Predict the structure.
Amino acid sequence: MSPELGLVCITVSKDIRYRTVTRKRLLEQSDAGQRKILDEIYRDNIQTLDGALNYCQREGIRLYRMPSSLFPFFDEDIGREVMQPLAPALARTGARATQLGLRLVMHPDQFVVLSSDSPEVVANSIKILQMHADIMELLQQPRSPWALLEIHGGKANRSDELVARIRDLPDPIRLRLCLENDEYSYGALDIHDVCVRSGVPMIFDAHHHIVHDKLSSYDDPSVAEMLARARETWAEPAHQVVHISNGREDFNDRQHSDLIATMPASYAGAPWIEIEAKLKEEAIAGLRDWKAVQAGQAAVVG
């Protein structure tokens, strides 16, 4: 088997584009006006999500990261009320994804900092995570890392607090939660330790790793080592997810490049790879030859 390559949120083309609304614009409206705007956006975005499923099926993509802003203000009472009559439509979309074998995942935004020393930030982080878990529930996705919610470690040097807060999360969040290494606060070894202690899977990002550790190659032995150690945190190793991007200006540039020119050799053994390149579907298309080579080599070994 060759790795499955995942699409992140939208396409460079107009095939997958979602609607949103700013807080300022929404709050300028009456209550009825706000509900009308949100109802229209939610309906349109459910249709766009259906279109994303069609796109992924057509292109042979089996992992799709939904945008964190899929349903604006769904973490507020007004959003939850607007969503109620639309729940059956969202359930049908989720059922179709399951039927297609399409894996749906989410990456809540940077405001999720469970390790913060601010009670207000932690409370807001849990509120945001609950919104994402509620979306997965409406889509009838399993309470497991198959339908993962991936976040970073957050505030540095607070791993004990992070572990404790993860353990206290409600099941719809905790059972889907995965932690990813970053360039600053939680390197691969750091986040691996948190994952082991909290019992959640680790998402290994090779680019974050080489930037954090100032490495000169994706084929540094530590890349393959951390890929393997991350896999051990997954109850179902075949569901392991990793990320890949390349530096824009140079190898250690944390900014993502348009395409993927360099792939870690060890990623040939990664089951699921989210492609975090700027040109989205074009980057995935550019990796088809690489994917075919991995499939051929796997067939020879088999």
In short: The first strand starts at residue 4 and ends at 8. The longest helix spans residues 31-59.
